[in-house]
Amino acid sequence: MIGFLLICAFFLCVLVWICTRPKHFPPGPKGLPLLGCLMSVPQWHAGCAFMGLMELYYKYGPVCGFYIGPQPVVSISGYEACKEAFLNENLNGRPDNAPARMKSKGKRMGVMLVDGDFWMTQKRFTLHHLRELGFGKKSMENLIQNEVKFLLEDMERQIEDGNHHFEFKNYFNVSLVNALWMMLASARFERNDPRLKLLIELFDTVFRSGDIIRVAFPCPAILIKMFPTFFAKLGRMDLLKEVWKFIEEAIEDHKQKLPQSEARDFIDVYLKEIERDVDHSFSEEQLMNIILDILSAGADTTGNSIGFALLHLIHHPEIQTKMQLELDEVCGDSLPCLHHKPQLTYTQAVLMEVQRMSGVSPLAIPRRALKTITFGGYVIPQNTHVIINMHSVHMDETYWTDPQIFRPDRHVDCDGRIIKTDHLFPFGGGKRSCLGETLARTSYFFFTASLVKMFVFRSVPGSFSPPSIAPLDGFTLGHRPFYAFLTKR
Questions:
Q1: Which CB contacts under 8 angstroms, 24+ apart, belong to 198-201?
Q2: pLDDT digits (tens, 9 = 90+) for 58-70
Q3: Taking the model in full, what pTM does it have?
Q4: Which of 93, 304, 352, 484 could pair with 368 as two cysteines, CB 3.0-4.6 Å apart?
Q5: Which residues bind heme (predicted)?
Q6: Fold for domain 26-488?
């Protein structure tokens, strides 16, 4: 009798679960009662959550719906659907749950995971004053070039000492954080600074700890704090304590030395805005979270993009040689500068092809439907998490023909000019595209082009195969740590 009742209760739960899917909700996997698809995400594609969404795209079409726990999630794939989603004002919200708030100590702060008027105010202020401090200007170019020179000198010394074997694991992130920190706090660190190395390791661990799909699970914050290892796939934001402390100390130091006249950097500018007390959305806590957003996203994504570029060039030495010949012809004995970039057609094509095949953000940061809308013939309810699958466009066979092949020439027309395409958007699109796109593009170009001009990158002698290009999964994708054999050109 008890067994019969349990069976009836189970089937009742299943029936209720099926019936709770909203009318005209997009087709997709049903999942389990209460848990939805939380446990089945890894089964969609082993090793990479974002590839699981590709499997759903092939099975259910460009608009696919499922649940992570009680949270409705819609995945949008394919060029037309992704483009429409990027431009839809009603999809400009950000998820608001405990995993998202953990980054900001339980509050909605920063610029990455907030929305509404608060987001617009903070975004405008941040972009405006970063531009005034050199963002996108010649001074930013000089700042990045200085960090490139420090990096190259360090690598040259290692080779002169007879060590041609390099391990690449967060190798470029120190230089990238220095470029950002100069703009934010007017300071830089030595490459061997132990605290900076720790912060970069923490960023890497946090970014690799979760995935964009399962983070939708609305787990109470108290449970995440009590059992961080058990809920690790929602993101190990608890590991950011040392980063928070580092940023707080920098802000406190600036408060003690705040100039009365011209601001030295972004922290000064923001502190002066707090003193004005015109808008209460400005606070030291918000400043700390803006810095956290810029530092974490800026260093991780660009550093891994450079790593993926070197991996592809190790796999394709003939492409590396062709790129080096162009760099020699255009730049001569000098390092690449922005004024060289229009002439470096093949170099640009290589960088674009790396972003297409090994984009560090295959999925855009999740969005939230601000109201119930009709999209692609289906209904997306208010507060649904929406994931835009950019990888589906970058690997679209109908547009790229042979997307699985690394072929930079596809980005160059018959007249030798770069093809401008809207089928490649590594930084997202619409109003919620990447805040640091200008700096990221510039850093990616300078570092990669300079490294390839100065050194030849090869597999370690005696290795059976080149290092793996397969990514490490996470909130963003990272390249696997690898060894390479370097010689100075």
A1: 198/242, 199/242, 199/243, 199/246, 200/170, 200/173, 200/174, 200/299, 201/170
A2: 999 999 999 999 9
A3: 0.92
A4: 93
A5: 434
A6: Cytochrome p450 (1.10.630)
